[in-house]
């Protein structure tokens, strides 16, 4: 039974606010919000499904904020979404067919790999200032990278923001602000697909989901302002810190 107390609701609001900031600037915020939902008494599957309400609403707030600041490359939105959504469908089918024990090593391996990538090859996720961005139609590797990111997102979801950053910045050479804008768009699109499935299965609890969504939206709006103002090197080190935290969380679970 869901427990609505001052403590649990406050916990949900605070973790949602922090997760909104983390997910907008990097990724891994669900490592905070899913446990907070479970503290309220939600089983793991319902907590995971309900959490997507917050993820979707923060994505909407993040995309809107980046667009208002001119950081969303609208000319590449549809070409970026197509391989990502196709990959998400493949990943979801894999998740239904493959054993659950595969999830933890995949998550842990991906988070550790991202940490090493940021530490040893920082230019991949944070291109030097003045780097000219590429279009996806001119970069076949980007289509493949975004498809793989979609497969990962459909299969695991946790930490997909990190994978999307590597795919977008690594192949299309966007700076981290523009990368995060497109990342939020991709995350929102994948989440819509997932939410339809979860709602059909009756796994979403709307009251805690909307409470969480209101706080993640606030966090995302604040994070957009930070993303616009902070130097790219600061964002890169924040991203590295979040991948290390996500790796620790994957080990703990």
Commentary on this structure:
This protein has eleven helices and no strands. It has helices at 6-25, 30-39, 44-68, 77-97, 103-120, 122-125, 140-155, 160-172, 176-200, 206-229, 232-252. The chain starts with 5 loop residues before the first helix and ends with a helix.
Please give a quick description of this structure.
This protein has about 250 residues and is mostly helical.
User: Quick check: average pLDDT?
Assistant: 87
Structural class, by secondary structure, is mainly alpha
Largest sheet: none
Q: What's the total helix number?
A: 11
Radius of gyration (CA) equals 17 Å
What is the approximate shape? globular
- The poorly predicted ranges are none
- Topology order in helix (H) and strand (E) letters: HHHHHHHHHHH
Distance between the termini: 23 Å
Based on DSSP secondary structure assignment, what is the total number of beta strands? Answer: 0
Give the proportion of residues in helices. Answer: over 70%
- Share in β-strands: under 5%
